[in-house]
Design brief:
Elements: H1 2-13, H2 15-20, H3 22-27, H4 29-32, E1 41-42, H5 55-64, E2 69-71, E3 77-85, E4 92-97, E5 103-106, H6 113-128, H7 138-146, H8 149-163
Parallel strand pairs: 1-3
Antiparallel strand pairs: 2-3, 3-4, 4-5
Helix pairs in contact: 5-6, 7-8
Length: about 160
């Protein structure tokens, strides 16, 4: 279970790295289809519509959905990496990432369909898309974007040991 938590934390802390490299990610299906197992959900709807999220889903969502980027202190912006709440009452709790990689809890003024419907549509589109046979994982994507190829090779070798 620890590895899953670490991947979620790595994703959240790397959100701005991913967003700032969106063109490169969207051009490479192995990066765009890297799975992200971040729990999103809405009361009365559950989490089924948000399953199968990938880095490409998040990058496109941040790029096209104004509500997916929130204002934080000092006029900076935060990228929402997880959301949940009630679409009826609007009560919600989100996790967002500041440009320095700090992950913080926040709320959006109104948990409207403008926030979650685009995310669900992107998840569905990616689910129907041509998924590469072996998409990268979040750690591989971060290693490649930061140029840490030795770390990436070590990580892949560790995974091969586990799979054998």
């Amino acid at each position: 279970m620890k590895a899953i938590k670490d991947e979620k934390q790595l994703f959240a802390e790397s959100a701005w790295l991913l967003f700032n490299n969106r063109e490169r990610i969207l051009a490479d299906p192995r990066m765009a289809y890297a799975p992200i197992d971040m729990q999103n959900g809405l009361m009365y709807f559950g989490s089924k519509a948000f399953e199968g999220a990938t880095i490409g889903v998040y990058v496109e969502w941040w790029q096209t959905c104004e509500q997916a980027i929130v204002k934080v202190a000092c006029g900076q912006q935060g990228l929402i990496v997880r959301f949940g709440g009630s679409p009826l009452s609007g009560v919600n709790k989100c996790l967002a990432t500041a440009p320095d990689g700090t992950v913080f809890e926040t709320r959006v003024p109104h948990l409207t369909s403008n926030l979650w419907q685009p995310f669900a549509r992107l998840c569905q589109r990616y689910a129907k898309g041509e998924r590469p046979e072996q998409p990268f994982c979040i750690e591989e994507v971060v290693c490649r974007l930061t140029g840490q190829t030795n770390r990436c090779i070590d990580f892949i070798n560790e995974r091969l040991k586990i799979w054998r």
